Amino acid sequence: MKYKNIVMALIATIGVLAVVKFSTVLANPNIKDVKIESTKGKNEGIFSEKDGMWQPGMSKKSEFFIENSSNKDIVIEKFTFNKSFLKNYKNNKDIFESDKEYDAFMNNSFIEISYKGEELYSGSFKDAFKEKKVDLLEQIKVKAGEKKVFDITISLSKDMNNNAKALKKEFILGIIYEYAEESKLTENKSNYKNIALGSYDIFLELVNENMLTKPLKEEV
Prior knowledge:
Number of strands: 13
CATH architecture: Sandwich
Helix content: under 10%
């Protein structure tokens, strides 16, 4: 049988108060051998308020690792983007595709994931969540007992306007992988999906356009 596996990490988007906490939670107690975690530590965030304010044109990079604690090599095939929501975190209002805030944020926010300087995926938030499952530009093997570190960069377009201010977005970033010894099998298409979950929190509030030249530490 060919096994298809999914590992997921919950990410919430970008922000002025980029407060992020990450923890690994196993959705399936039988699957404990592959995990995603921040390089800053299990209880630390990929981004935090120490990163300062976000504003249009800004880009920030951080790291996470994928660890394979099983006795089999795995091949990472896809990233997944699922179970997302976008809301105004000041009034807790949900933002939908028909709202002007949605396009202002989703069309002007970008995510890139790379390994050792080689881009694995790059696209807008809108494209990522439309596709939900995206192929890596290059499949990555993680050997049994190995841990590999990946870069994740989130960028805001300089064209982003204040329709996107005070927004919070949560979504699940995951990987789909196969065991290397099974990845060449094509005759059996039945899949068994294993899921591990983690969480990040990042918040976005844009500074007003006439404040962009002021120091990042100043709040609007």
